[in-house]
Amino acid sequence: MAKHTGNDKLKKHAVYVYSEEQLGYKFSETHPFNQKRLILTTDLLRKMNALSDQDIVIPRIATDDELLLAHDPRYVDIVKKASKGLMTSSQTESFGIGTEDTPIFPNMHEASARLVGGTLTAVDYVMENKALHALNLGGGLHHGFHGRASGFCIYNDSSVAIKYIQQKYKARVLYIDTDAHHGDGVQWSFYEDPDVCTISIHETGRYLFPGTGNVTERGSGLGYGTSFNLPIDAFTEDESFLDLYMTAFREIATHFKPDVIITQNGADAHYLDPLTHLYGTMKLYQEIPKLAHQLAHEFCDGKWIAVGGGGYDIWRVVPRAWSLLWMEMNDMELPQGKLPKEWLDQWQKDSPVQLIPTWMDPENLYEPIPRKEEITEKNKQVLDKALYHIRPHYEKE
Question: Where does the record place the Histone deacetylase domain (predicted)?
Answer without folding.
Answer: 31-326
